[in-house]
Amino acid sequence: MSWLNSVRNVLSFVSKKETPENLWHKCKGCGQMIFIRELEENAYVCPKCDHHDRIGPKERFRQLFDENSCAELPAPKVPEDPLKFRDSKRYVDRLKAARAANSESDALVNARGTILGNRVVVGVQDFGFMGGSMGLAVGEAFIRGVEAAIADRCPYVIFTASGGARMQEGILSLMQMPRSTVAIQMLHDAGLPYIVVLTDPTSGGVMAAYAMLGDVQIAEPKATLAFTGRRVIESTIREKLPEDFQTSEYYLDHGLIDMVVHRHDLRERLATVVGYLCGDRKAA
User: Fold this and answer.
1) Statement: the pTM of the whole predicted model exceeds 0.85
2) Which site in 33, 35, 132, 217 is 20 to 30 Å from 75, CA atoms measured?
């Protein structure tokens, strides 16, 4: 018997230790494998290439809010399948699968709290929930977030991450665009600021609605920001677009947003902006 077979026989009697599936993370920016704990400690920013990974509402709230100040707003109740839609799967089955995978009722979650002592209501879209798509639940949650900000006399800050309107809700999804616009006007009528933080990716109907209506427009680095896809635009205008087209940096260079802020600096920058705009409303 060779030494290799001997080793195999020994190993066959040794219980195998399972490697946890969440021990390593492959960076979408550089393709390197990163120890998941190292990524978490770095705010889900790749320590090798600085790629900003997508994060959900709970992690975003944890990074932003002062300790013990965060209180999530209840999710609004809306008709779940108004069109009785079915493609390869029933819409209600897709919703169940998304809820099981993300532990949220839909793609937009609101919370009130303080950021370095400044009162805010923050809404976070979760791209992991059906691509952050905008349907009745997202539109209603947006309005509830605005109403909460008005009640608290503080800004409403929205973190956008969406593939656009939710096709399974048809025209009802598209109607959330004017509804959100009216809600923003309500906020302005109350003399309160509306702050947008664009994250990767933000596109479609969300980009055409509340994502680009902020009094202050902030974006995370290298986020994809677009109404429609590159190939559609290139085939329409019959021209080759720049490589950095539809990125945060391109938008900043062309005056479409106010600033690009690294995730490590975002909490302090938001506190500064809110302090300038609502300094007299700082929490006790």
Assistant:
1) yes
2) 217
Tell me if 1 is assigned to some domain.
Answer: no
- What is the dihedral sign for C-alpha 21, 42, 223, 111? positive
Task: Give exposure, 62-86, as e/b (b: 16+ Cβ within 10 Å).
Answer: eebbeeebbeebebbebeeeeeebe
Is the residue at 12 inside a domain? no
Predicted local confidence at residue 279, as pLDDT: 75
User: For the segment 144-198, what is each residue's pLDDT rounded down to a tens digit?
Assistant: 999 999 999 999 999 999 999 999 999 999 999 999 999 999 999 999 999 999 9
Q: Does residue 167 share a domain with residue 210? A: yes
- Between the alpha carbon of residue 72 and those of residues 42, 62, 116, 245, 248, the distances in Å are 24, 12, 18, 36, 29
Burial of 124 (0-12, 13-18, 19+ CB in 10 A): buried
